[in-house]
Structure formats: structure tokens, C-alpha cells
Amino acid sequence: MKRRLLVALSLLVLVLALPFVAFGDVTVGAGGGTPGTSLNFQLVGSNPLYGRGMNAALTIYDHYVYIGNRTDGSSTCGFGDPRGYLTQNCPHPHPGILIADIADPANPTIVGEIGPPYAAQVGITTRELRVWPQKKLLMVMTFRCSSVIHACPVGNDTTFPFDIKFFDLTDPLHPAFISSYVPTSVAGQIVKPHEMYLWVDPKNPNRALLWLSTPSTSVNPARPNLMIVDVSDVPSGGAVHEIAEGNWNQFFPGAGDPSNYDFDLSLHSMTPSFDGARTYLAYLRGGFGVLDTSDVANDRVPEGTVESLNDRLLTPVPFPTWGTGPHCEGHTAAGCSESHSAVPLPGRPFALTIDEVYGTLAASSFGWPWGWTRLWNVAQPSRPHIIGEYKLLQNTTAYTPAPGENDFTSYSSHNPTVLRNLIFDSWHSGGEQAIDVSDPGRPQQGGWFSPTPLASVANEDPALSAGPNKVVMWSFPIIRNGLIYVVDIRNGLYVLRYTGPRADEAAAISFLEGNTNLGDAGRLAKSG
Hints:
The protein has 528 residues and is mainly beta. It has helices at 2-17, 294-297, 331-334, 405-408, 503-507, 521-526; strands at 20-23, 26-29, 37-39, 41-47, 55-61, 64-69, 97-101, 109-114, 124-132, 137-144, 163-168, 176-181, 195-200, 208-213, 226-230, 241-246, 269-272, 278-282, 288-292, 307-308, 339-344, 350-355, 373-377, 385-392, 415-418, 422-426, 432-436, 444-450, 478-480, 483-488, 492-498, 511-513.
């Protein structure tokens, strides 16, 4: 026991002494988990967003940032709140979509808010936002928020319905509602979305599609886990048209009993390649897969029909996974898949996967060591294989969680924005991480930014900031004119400049975000 303790302490000292430490194919980044510290990042500007807490996704149009809300328009207290769980003692101030002017990046200023009836509704979060700038179209995904992890009232998808709302940004300070869309499968079943990716056809700038994850543990091939819908006609008042869908649960052994996969075998999110021909799937307990979507991308789906993608997998099923298998009897021992994101490295035969793991409040199998990133060789999508991993100290056996961290904190990788050789990842309480992947077999920490937390906020995130670490970097970073815009759930909007290894790549970006193929995405994809 004494020898094991000495080894662990020696590892801890070594990790803290260096910017990164490699153990075989695993690199451990030393910094990020301590609030108020940074390396190779400059803070350009920030805004606390009224100290409301529970901030969500951001999107940018012109010189305005639109920021959604993880919670709702109620006064509900979250789980563990000292004011009383589910009581009405916790007002949610400014619960709508905030609009910030970033004409001066050093001084982002709140200039507006989208409220009822389209946002700030009771029981409904405005968690995902995208913009098609050429058409001045704002897209907002809304759905029921949780009474446990989002401080919302108890309800269901009938009392608190879901949809995607569309707004005209001709007047960016006063977005005008156009229409809404409720995802409905070709079989006529209404299905709840979770993540969306906006893809604008490189060959036709008037054609835009949304890739929607619609998670389900069902093995019914007609109940989709993925839908692809055409939103091209929405700016002129037209309808959304579904063009493709798929569900691959039925190909996983034993999936007919959802408990075999901890009731978690479903598609969390997806990223198409710049040209849309391939889609990279993050399949929670299922792992990582690659899908052929070339017919969709090349507009070969006959008008009025919906293509089934069920037989278009390029990766064998069950997908490659990690740890001890799909069933996780205690995540801390197994380290098995909770695949959140799967993203290709532009112009290179590699991909990044992200595992997102909350504390045990969200699931008893969660908690330490939370989730981290893996780099894959995908030159042959029928045989993808892991070539490198990147962790923080908190993701290793050298770390012992402080009281409350295992339950109410997450040192987990989350939303990445990927350049050719550089990744920016919002690593929850690990801060904003810069990862140099010029050698994907040895990813290295390029730097980190962990803000000094606000003294208090109106509402703590029950699952992510109720523990001792009050930093929760969360959103897909957006790079605009070389600066990085990112949202911390608790502490607000941050504008950063990266100065570490490969900083020239970030400085050269006019616009890039992790959930669309807009801006510099095409240049990066072709620069190989």
C-alpha cells in the first residue's frame, strides 16, 4: 500500500511539474483544473451575463452573440439547492436568449433578450442555437429541461413540448419569429432532438441541411436515432423537409434489452465531413462509427422521399468502443464509452472522439475519472482504431476527488472545435483546453484557461457547479477574427486569444465553429 501511494504521489508531482506528460499513447495535461489559472491564453474580454448561471450554447451573427439558457423561465430550485428542491424560491433572472454586442471584443455588452413566447418558457430550455448567416436565419432548439440537473419543474414532453424555432435576423436586435418545426419521422412518429449540426452545401449556397440526433434505445429500425432535414426554404417562409434517417441499435448484440447497455445505447451527436459525404457518429454506450451520407450531400435523394441510412454504415457493428465493454458496472473501474462527440480533423485521415461524463448525481456509474478525448486513425473507416488519448490530471489514478467533486462536479471533455493541428475543447471544470494534435499519436497540451469564478450566481448547475470547482466551460468555442468566444455555464461569456503552440493557425481563422461547416471549414478541409 505504501509503495502504491509513493508511486501515485511521484506521478502527481511529475504531472504538475510539466505542461504535459506522455504515458505510451496517453498524454496528461497538467493544467486547467484550478480556477483562476491559465497558460498560453490571454483574456480579451468577458461578460457575466447578469450572473444568472445556467448559460448554454452561443452562436454569432455579424457582431452579435446569441446565448441560450440551460434552465427555464420558472423559479424552480434545483436538486441540492439549500433554498429547497422544487420549491419556487429560486428566480431564474433573464431566462431568455441573451444578445451581446461584440463589436468591441474587449467589452462584450448585453443589448437585448429574446423572451416569451419563444424563449424563457417554463419547463423548456433554449439550449442549442445555430445561425445560417447568408440567409439571416437563427435556429433555436428547445426541449424539456430536467427537474434534477437543470433546476426545472417536473413535467413531460407533452406538458413541455420540443421543437426547432426559426427567426429572421434582418433586425438582429429584434429577431422576428418565422416558424417552428417538430421533428417527425417518415413513419409519422414525433421524435425529440438533442443535438444539431448545420451543413450548407459547398456546391449550392442556397441549400442548407440540419443533421439532428434524436436519441432512442429502440431497436425498431423505423424509429430514427438520426434525422437529416432540409431547411433551405425556411427563410422564405417554406417548410422543413426530411430527406434521410437511420437507426443502428438493432445491429448491436443484445440491444433488444436496453439494460445490456445501461439504457444508454443511442446516438448523442454527429459531425458530417465538410463535403457531407461521411458522417462521424458519437454513439454513447455504442462507441464510434462512420456513416456514408454521400447521397444526401450530393442531392441524390429523390424529391418527396426519405432515404434510409440503416444500411449505409462504413464501420462494422458493434462499433469500436473502449474499456470493458458496453455495460458499465461502475464507470470509475471500466472507463467505457459515453461517446459525446465524434469529429474529423479537417484535411487529415484522423478523427477526435469526446467522452462526456458528469458526476454521480446524473448516474451512479458516473463520476471520477469522468471523460476524456481519443484520437483515431480513420483512413480506413471499416477499421478505425485509437492512436492516442489526452487526459487531464483529474482523469487519472493520480488524482483523488475532493469532497463533493465526485457527485456534483465534472472534469470531463465536452464540446470541441477542431482545426487541422489544434483542438479547443471546453473541458467543464478543466477549463478551456488547447490541444496540439500535429502528432495525433501524442496529443499535447498547448495551454488552458480557467476563469476566476463569480462570487455567486442566481442558480448553480446542480450537476456541474454545485461542487467545489465553480468553473464549467461548456459551449463549442467559436473562433472569429482569431479570437475565441466561449461560454461558461456558471460564469458567463469569455473572449480569449490563444498564444501557445500552433497559435498561428487560430490567428488565421476568420470564422470557425464546431457545429457547422461555415467560414474557414472549407479552407481547412482542402489545405491537406
